[in-house]
Specification:
Growth Hormone, Chain: A
Length: about 425
């Protein structure tokens, strides 16, 4: 059988892509609404924003390794559907608590921790499920397609969120995300894909499998520097996440709607970057693209730190967001395509959950640090500190072997046969041969 070289020939991926687009759109609304809710509704400061962000990612630190083992031993589609439903129902609690006047910072922290636990399982299953839907040569284009949808959602989501927050208040805007998760679950449920049966695990199995996942990442000559660099990236990102909203609302004087419009420019940049990601990866290689994009991320936050409480300063803030979107859009598909391609199917869950759990641990650490930095040395200085950190992250990765990393990217055939593709459920050897230093 000749494998089609176009994503359009994989109906299961089209459904998966649709579900991801819907839930991603809602997530941008909630991410914005929660930040505004803390600052404006609950009258919190940068430290409070950092604490809530930290609680959101705490389950990744506590249970990330176990989650990866469980995902590798489970059918991934049922996990996706179940967690989508539970997250949708959980999000309904925010306006319900607000209506009964029981919404407080402590309650919101507890809510975000529970939401983070469900998100941990969903994330590990989502990124591990994609390699079962398309062949290795289409992983980078598939991730680019997902990023394009995410960029469109990022472009319109914050602006819509700003309008919804202004009209309905922040708690009620969260309902949009609740509906999006439920729609995602309904869209994913009919997917037909062959998956290995569930394998029960004992404590000894879980420990052995977790160690195997850690060894795979941190002993791999190309994945180790990439993982360590990404951990540093998330630490810096957590600092910016804690101070960005207070900086924009309180220092620059932007309204929630104005901030939503400014953040939408990152979505425009993300769309452009993701559209170019496959071509850039083919020409320069995944390694060089990831390194360059992380340097551009440093530049983007330098621009944001330079912005002032004036219309010209708001334009600088928007330009920083645009550059941030460009760098992340071009980087993500190349990075994720490489991770997924060099990792065997039976290690996908552990690979994704392990690296993501440690990345999120960096948020747990970095978010409170960012809040404290913002409240002590000022939000602008905290942004400058993060920009310097991003530059160090890029330079460190550039000095490693990862700069030579390349992933296999299929070029669409002019007349590919329209045969029904077979789903990938094998547990073959890892594709470490795609490294071409």
């Amino acid at each position: 059988m000749t494998t089609p070289e176009r994503l359009a020939d994989y109906p299961a991926f089209r459904r998966y892509w649709s579900a991801s687009t819907v839930s991603g759109f809602g997530s941008y609304v909630t991410g914005f609404a929660i930040q505004v809710l803390i600052v404006k509704t609950l009258h919190g400061d940068s430290t409070d924003v950092g604490l809530v962000n930290s609680a959101r990612w705490l389950p990744y630190l506590l249970f990330g390794l176990i989650a990866g083992v469980l995902i590798d031993r489970s059918r991934r589609l049922p996990v996706l559907v179940a967690t989508d439903v539970m997250m949708g129902l959980l999000l309904v609690a925010v306006p319900a608590l607000a209506l009964t006047h029981h919404l407080s910072l402590i309650v919101l922290i507890a809510f975000m921790a529970l939401f983070g636990l469900l998100s941990l399982l969903n994330d590990a299953a989502t990124q591990s499920f994609l390699p079962r839907l398309v062949p290795p040569g289409l992983l980078t284009p598939a991730n680019a397609r997902l990023d394009q949808s995410s960029a469109v959602a990022q472009t319109s989501g914050p602006a819509l969120a700003g309008a919804l927050v202004s009209l309905l208040t922040a708690p009620w805007a969260v309902l949009v995300d609740a509906v999006s998760y439920l729609v995602s679950a309904v869209t994913l449920a009919p997917i037909s894909v062959e998956e290995p049966p569930r394998r029960p695990a004992s404590f000894v199995d879980i420990r052995r499998d977790a160690v195997e996942g850690l060894r795979w990442i941190y002993r791999h000559p190309m994945l180790r520097p990439l993982a360590l660099s990404t951990h540093g990236w998330f630490l810096c990102s957590a600092i910016t996440g804690a101070v960005m909203t207070p900086f924009a609302l309180n220092t620059l004087g932007l309204s929630p709607f104005g901030l939503g419009l400014a953040l939408s420019t990152a979505g425009i940049g993300g769309l452009v970057g993701s559209l170019a990601a496959t071509r850039l990866g083919t020409r320069f290689g995944a390694g060089r693209i990831v390194i360059a994009c992380r340097a551009f991320t440093a530049a983007s936050f330098a621009l944001i730190a330079l912005s002032t409480a004036h219309w010209s300063g708001w334009l600088v803030f928007g330009a920083g967001q645009l550059l941030l979107g460009l760098s992340m859009g071009a980087e993500n598909a190349n990075e994720m395509g490489y991770w997924q391609e060099v990792t065997a199917d039976h290690l996908q869950g552990r690979m994704n959950a392990t690296r993501r759990s440690i990345n999120r641990a960096m948020i747990v650490i970095g978010a409170p640090i960012g809040g404290l930095l913002g409240d002590t040395i000022g939000n602008r200085s905290a942004l400058w500190t993060a920009a310097g950190g991003f530059l160090i992250v890029s330079a460190g990765l550039g000095a490693s072997r990862f700069r030579h990393a390349r992933a296999t990217i299929s070029v669409p055939a002019q007349s590919a046969p329209r045969e029904e593709p077979s789903h990938r459920s094998d547990e073959g050897q890892s594709r470490s041969d795609v490294q071409r230093p």
